[in-house]
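TA notes, week 10

Several of you asked for a full example with nothing omitted. So below is the full record: structure tokens for the whole chain, then the designed sequence directly under it. When grading your own attempts, check the secondary structure regions first.
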């Protein structure tokens, strides 16, 4: 018979806090048993599910959980990530948390914005987020950061992946509810680029990835004004 674990034991195994485990239970990520006294008891299957969803993030002095996740995401991508939203996706945190973490890490010198040349329709210089591997503190942090297991996604962020209903008039041939802003980003960008809806452009500029706009801009026969708009919207996401 599998031994049941307490909330404290689960929190220790995941290198997180008891309150975070309790929030995961409240969110319905797992449904542990309860003792007669109301205490939670978790199975190994519950622990595995929480590890996938919450990740495993060691506590490092002077760094928040989100900062450690961001460092781990960047450390595993030597060519860097273009935007805070891309960092958020890779780290499994919300865009707001990623922006705050990047700001603090940049001020501490652990990450930097570095200019890199990429090729899409044309060669372009972009600024990417990268770990400062030459920083003296990184030599101590690197081995611990390598043990990080990022969560599948941030709790409560799923709504950010959907196209809002008020944009459905731009997607008359598909069910807008089935579109995903990550998987279908280039298609969504192409429909928005073809419209004159300024509100749609504004939504896309803070939601879609730069890659989505650049792929959409590469479609043969696209009006040069739309190509320019795509590059401008992509630039806003760097």
């Amino acid at each position: 018979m599998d031994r049941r674990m307490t909330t404290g034991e689960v929190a220790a195994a995941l290198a997180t806090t008891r309150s975070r485990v309790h929030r995961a239970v409240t969110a319905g990520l797992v449904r542990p048993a309860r003792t007669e006294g109301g205490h939670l008891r978790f199975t190994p299957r519950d622990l595995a599910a929480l590890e996938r969803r919450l990740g495993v993030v060691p506590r490092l002095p002077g760094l928040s959980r989100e900062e450690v996740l961001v460092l781990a995401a960047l450390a595993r991508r030597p060519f860097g990530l273009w935007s805070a939203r891309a960092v958020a996706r890779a780290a499994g945190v919300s865009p707001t948390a990623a922006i705050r973490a990047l700001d603090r890490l940049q001020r501490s010198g652990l990450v930097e914005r570095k200019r890199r040349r990429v090729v899409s329709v044309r060669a372009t210089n972009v600024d990417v987020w990268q770990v400062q591997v030459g920083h003296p503190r990184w030599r101590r942090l690197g081995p611990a950061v390598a043990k990080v297991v990022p969560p599948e996604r941030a709790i409560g962020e799923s709504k950010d992946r959907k196209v809002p209903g008020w944009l459905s008039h731009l997607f008359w041939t598909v069910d807008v509810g089935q579109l995903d802003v990550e998987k279908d980003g280039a298609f969504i960008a192409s429909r928005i680029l073809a419209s004159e809806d300024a509100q749609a452009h504004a939504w896309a500029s803070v939601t879609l990835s730069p890659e989505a706009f650049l792929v959409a801009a590469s479609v043969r026969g696209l009006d040069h004004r739309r190509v320019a708009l795509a590059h401008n919207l992509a630039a806003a996401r760097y």
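Confidence is low (pLDDT under 50) at residues 155-159. Use that as a sanity check on your answer.
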